[in-house]
Amino acid sequence: MKTIIHKADTRGFANHGWLQANHSFSFAGWFNPERIHFGALRVLNDDTIAPKMGFGTHPHDNMEIITIPLKGVLKHRDNMQSDWQQVLPGEVQVMSAGTGVQHSEINGSADEYLSLFQIWVIPEKQGVTPRYDQKQFKTEDRQGKLQTLVSSFNDAEAGSLKIHQDARLSRIDLEEGQTFTYNLKSDNHGVYIMTISGAIEINNNSLESRDAMGVYETKAFTIKANKNSELLFIEVPMITL
């Protein structure tokens, strides 16, 4: 088993006033040649956005974009639909940028900060028709068990959002002292574990809130929760760029 440790305080950070952004991988003005990607995972941004602020209309293409609000109200609008779409904590949003899409993202609250993860996954094929989807996931369905949020269009698993990559995004909430064994899809996959909150241990490595770890070249590994913990798994093919 091979591992990569990314402690929370080693991430790139940008303070734009209205936006506090933490970058797990090179993004915008922050560049680290050793932190370009983890397999097909290209971006994992941990953003906090001030009330009524956000990103104006901007383009994307040939990327699978997943947004997970953690606190507050996200509002999204793109050129595939004219109405603003509200995305709340407990919901997940996916957008296949494909041949090109223009979209805007703002904090839909007048007085509460918005906290979210935005994830970019490199697609397995280029030039697909752009699409948008979102879905609500119940907290109780990830208590001590894996809750799949996103999977491939080629994966028959029901109930998850779909993207154009042989990837799997999932969450689990563990109580203090609880253990969980994660099984990877194949020998060619790796999984990037983000500790949303709490404290865990994997293979004698301790991770606390917002620490992350990439695991690959193994079939399975076991996690122990040292505190009540919320975890996000991003499993992707270990492609090279």
From TrEMBL:
InterPro entries: Pirin (IPR012093), Pirin_N_dom (IPR003829), Quercetinase_C (IPR041602), RmlC-like_jellyroll (IPR014710), RmlC_Cupin_sf (IPR011051). The keyword Ribosomal protein does not apply. Its cofactor is Fe cation. It holds the Pfam family Pirin_C_2. SUPFAM superfamilies: RmlC-like cupins. Binds 1 Fe cation per subunit. Residues 150-236 form the Quercetin 2,3-dioxygenase C-terminal cupin domain. Fe cation binds at residues 58, 60, 103, 105. GO terms for molecular function: metal ion binding. It comes from the Bacteria. Belongs to the pirin family. Keywords: Iron, Metal-binding. This is Pirin family protein. Residues 11-121 form the Pirin N-terminal domain. The keyword Metal-binding applies.
